[in-house]
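explain this:

___
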Amino acid sequence: MPEYKPPFTLTNTILKLIAEISEAIGRLSVQLECEQNLRLRRVNRMRTIQGSLAIEGNTLSEEQITAILDGKRVVAPPKEVKEALNAISVYEQLDTWQPSSEQALLAAHKTLMTGLVEEVGSYRTGGVGVMSGDKVVHMAPQANRVAKLVSDLLEWLAHTDSHPLIASCVFHYEFEFIHPFADGNGRMGRLWQTLILSRWHPVFSHLPVESLVYQHQDEYYQAIRQSTAQTDSSPFIGFMLQMILDVLIEVQAEAVTTQKTTQKTTQKQKAILAYLQSNPGAGRREIAEALGNITEDGVKYNLKKLQEFNLLKRVGSARSGHWEVQA
């Protein structure tokens, strides 16, 4: 058993949050298994990437991240596009990494930061601090201590009997405290918490916790400062668990809405979607002739309904554009 044990206290608030999160996961996992919620899982992955990058100052919108996910060109600063491409790649490899593996940790950092900084896939060689805006909120340990500190933390993670919700939060905080890399520590800490949690329950692979953390950045850094001041990561654990619970509730509501919307679609609308999946450039007349049981006016009406349901999107003009099926 590892000698190192990160200091944290299990408060009543933390235990209550764990119970509420476990209950919420049970409800959400059933909903996300539905085929019609595949799109919602994809949207949540995009929100995860956008949120994590935004915390670090990236200005790409959700729409731009979605376009990059689809392999489209985006007019934006090259560095920000590269950050997005790297993040997409790293989240696509999430299932291939072992949370307690140092080799996996370094490989993930290399994927995440290649083309952005010089030191990729290796620990920092100089001093760094945790920044909140223009302010240094934490000076990290000396570079010559990093390898041992990370090794101890990964060893603890491999053997701890703490609940994965607790272990993931503790790891996240301790990782940020160590700040093992020259850059990319925030993104890596959030990625690794997602990885740890996804090993416990697959719903976390598509849960956009980072999106909510971005909306509560001040509290995020405050929780880090408070935990450091107390030499106890409980404030950070409590903050992250609340973010996880809030996101679960939010995504559950979205899943219900998506399911109800999809259930409203008629057989003709499903046939239109299926046809446009293979023939995105088709017009109303072509669709009507292909389906055979609907008029052009009927096609027009159903196309409008499908757009209202966010199941279909028109790209470009009415004359020269095409359809994108969103479901």
Q: What stands out?
A: The radius of gyration is 23 Å. The chain has a mean pLDDT of 87. The domain at 265-325 is CATH 1.10.10.10 (Arc Repressor Mutant, subunit A). The first strand starts at residue 129 and ends at 132.
